[in-house]
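job 3f2a | input accepted
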Amino acid sequence: MGEQRTYKPNELKKYILAALGIGTILGGSILFSPNFPIIVGSILKIIEEIKGEKIPRKKAIRVLKQLEKRQLIKIDRKDDEIYVTVRDKDNVSILKYSLKEVLRLKKKKDWQGKWFMVVFDVPEIERKKRNYLRGFLREIGFYPYNQSVYVYPYECEKEIALIKKIVEGGKYISYIIAERLEKEDQLKIFFGLGK
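job 3f2a | predicted structure (195 res):
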């Protein structure tokens, strides 16, 4: 009884970064607020909700201390509570992990039959930014419709607005809503949507 599972390197770090980002994104603002205090218990609750796992408090605090050393967060102790503040509101690691989970949570909604597209036209001279953008969108769960068009089946305008502000090459992004697309069968299979 009470056996604890072991975590792969960086697994807990990703969970915690995602929880920090979700705590701020879903906390009423799509911008990370460096002054938004997140109590450790809140982080653990968010992880339990998104991952269905109870993380031991001691392990979480150990990871938070590592993140503090990297100056991503600031930890303050007040009485018996530990508060965590996001230092860098534009940190792409926090953005990536949290958006991935926020978009994944949207999959629980019924699909409305629309497609939400990210289209970008990055100049050839900035191809590194273009490649970075492609990898970023894939990693957070978008379908690569073609090299410059990525698709998601749920509304994500706020999330794209955040990406445009923070991610390299974001200024070249446009957001489009489509009623119908060719290759819809492939998209439905990819996203696990019903017929």
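job 3f2a | The mean pLDDT is 85.
job 3f2a | closed
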